[in-house]
Amino acid sequence: MTGGGDLTFRCPDCGEAMAVNESMRDALLDHGCVVCGSTVSAAAFSPAEPE
Ligand SMILES: [Zn+2]
């Protein structure tokens, strides 16, 4: 599979980590963590690590 998530989101509050794309990042920044609802900042995102 190619495309899709190119960032890794890790919630600073609940610790949930997931691969996200740019539109998902924007949604998280707008609405908060999908798991715990905590406010998300840009610092919670990092480039996805290749495996
Ligand atoms: Zn969370």
UniProtKB/TrEMBL annotation:
Matching Pfam families: DUF7560 (PF24441)
Record InterPro entries: DUF7560
Protein name: Small CPxCG-related zinc finger protein
Natural source organism: Haloplanus vescus
